[in-house]
Design brief:
By secondary structure, the chain is α/β, with parallel strands linked by helices. Helix content is 51%, strand content 21%. Strand 1, helix 1 and strand 2 form a beta-alpha-beta unit. Helix 3 packs parallel to helix 5. The chain is globular, with a radius of gyration of 15 Å.
Length: 140
């Protein structure tokens, strides 16, 4: 299989950082494009008191993506790396972006930042692995 497009979902966790490093090395070897994705929760109804919080989540997501792009440029100059911020449920958005974007592989960390959420709902990486139509590489 020839890899030309690699999707890397990140959330700021150590596992996501390792996944990004691995994806950059893989992209360099395969001459592939990398898209770094972060997903923030979608808030359908935002009362006034929560607007600042939802905007802060988006700002944090953009900051996380910008940091990842700077790191990619420092570690692997010349690689084609883009960023993308989405709103919604992380697992569903990752799968949607991967399919619509016609990615060849998803490279992601084995664990993220949400321990309580993972306990209640299951891990994002587990859901992506089980529901993805394309290969998923989990990095520990």
């Amino acid at each position: 299989m020839l890899l030309k497009k690699i999707l890397v979902p990140i959330d700021g966790s150590d596992h996501a950082e390792k996944a990004l490093s691995y994806a950059l090395k893989l992209a360099e070897r395969c001459d592939a494009d990398v898209e770094v994705l972060t997903v923030v929760p979608e808030v359908v109804y935002t009362p006034d008191w929560m607007r600042d919080y939802t905007e802060k989540m988006k700002e944090n997501g953009e900051e996380l993506l910008s940091k990842a792009l700077r790191r990619a440029e420092e570690d692997k100059p010349g690689l084609r790396v883009s960023k993308r911020l989405e709103e919604g449920f992380a697992d569903l958005k990752i799968l949607e972006v991967a399919k619509k974007g016609r990615f060849d592989i998803i490279v992601m960390g084995s664990r993220g930042l949400g321990a309580v959420k993972r306990f209640l709902l299951g891990s994002v990486s587990n859901k992506v692995v089980n529901q993805s139509e394309l290969p998923v590489l989990i990095v520990k």
